[in-house]
Amino acid sequence: MAAAIFPYTDEYARFDYGSHHPFQIKRLELTYCLCEAYGLFDLPGVRIVRTQPAREEDVLAVHSADYLAALRAVDAGLALPAFAAYGLGSGDNPAFPGVYEWSMLSTGASLQGARALGKGEADVAFNIAGGLHHAMRTRASGFCYINDPAVAISELVRRGERIAYVDIDAHHGDGVQAAFYDTDQVLTISFHESGLFLFPGTGMPEELGEGKGYGYAVNVPLPIGTDDETFLWALRRVVPPLVERFRPDTLVTQLGVDSLHTDPLAHLSLTVQGFAEAVGVFKGLAPKWLALGGGGYNMVNVARAWTAAWAVMNGVEITSKLPEAFVNHASALGLRFEALWDEPVRLTPIEKNQVRRSVEGVVAYVLERAVPRC
């Protein structure tokens, strides 16, 4: 039995976007602690590997040399007006100490997962520190400095693989789409809250790719209030048939959990249970599976969702009752708990019908135009 790889390091705790920034790296420690409390690292075949930073030559496949030089300079404490052109130093992308080191660590974990899969050392790898999908070739964006999904995918493409990338973060996976918009070697599928209401304002159904890549970019923007039922219907209608026809060597998924209805930055209405069911849709769609983290700004519920995802990846079920050790740890940090596991969001019948009809129209549109067509 091949291993399920979980890259992690306590070094993550050294980095901080700032006490008032919504992106709190502490959520990684919380997720690790919850997985440990449930005994999910003691399962047969599970292996924790210490995160190793990416090398600059790996990252240059996606980012420009001048951007990386600017990021290194910011890391060293320099503050130049020219850095604003690279998206550095803004409220979203603060120039915090260690930003370059943090970015190379989170990217290195995604590369470790990709390489372990490529060598046959694992069937599944989950980098909870990854999924930073907004970074562009020459600029930081949306809390993301290095686009680790694109770097990992580029590594696999370089090895001759075909990759299906599926992104279920509440925000459109714009940076990954941009990196592979003109190739038929990578199928990108993004489910996200509509850009009419949420950053980055992209990810419309009409964004289908260009040149050889036309039809290989698939976007399903979702209305405010989309719940488990409609989300899961759309995911099952789009992802399995397209991925199965594309026949990728590796499936890469971005598992942002800002789609949960308690998230403070988005307006979708999934529960942890619905999120875990969505993760289950991905099992068996490709010979190898690289899963990545992403957004999520209610820290306790991020930990709950990613722990549930890791359980799904390893074929086990966990109870919704949180282990006492985790509850005590999170409470000591002053974190709040909300009943989210089985709690449905109740739309009115009229609202629910409006959301469903909107999503049905989008799904029909993209399936007619996606390659391979369904």
What's the Cα radius of gyration?
A: 19 Å
From N to C, what is the helix and strand string?
A: EHEHHHEHEHEEHEHEHHH
Would you identify the CATH H-level superfamily?
Answer: Histone deacetylase domain
Architecture, according to CATH? 3-Layer(aba) Sandwich
What is the CATH class name?
Alpha Beta
Number of structurally distinct domains:
1
The count of strands amounts to 8
Number of helices: 11
Strand order of the largest sheet: 2-1-3-8-7-4-5-6
Q: State which percent range the strand residues make up.
A: 5-15%
Termini gap = 34 Å
Q: Remind me, CATH topology?
A: Arginase, Chain A
Category from helices, strands and their pairing: alpha/beta
Outline the biggest β-sheet: 8 strands, parallel
Mean model confidence by pLDDT: 94
Shape: globular
- Helical coverage, percent range: 25-40%
Low-confidence stretches: none
Characterize the structure shown.
The structure is a single chain. The chain is α/β, with parallel strands linked by helices and 374 residues long. It has one domain: Arginase, Chain A, CATH 3.40.800.20. It contains 11 helices and 8 strands. An 8-stranded parallel β-sheet has the order 2-1-3-8-7-4-5-6, sandwiched between helices. The longest helix has 21 residues, at 349-369.
Characteristic key phrases:
single chain; about 10% strand; 8 strands; globular; about 375 residues; 11 helices; eight-stranded parallel β-sheet
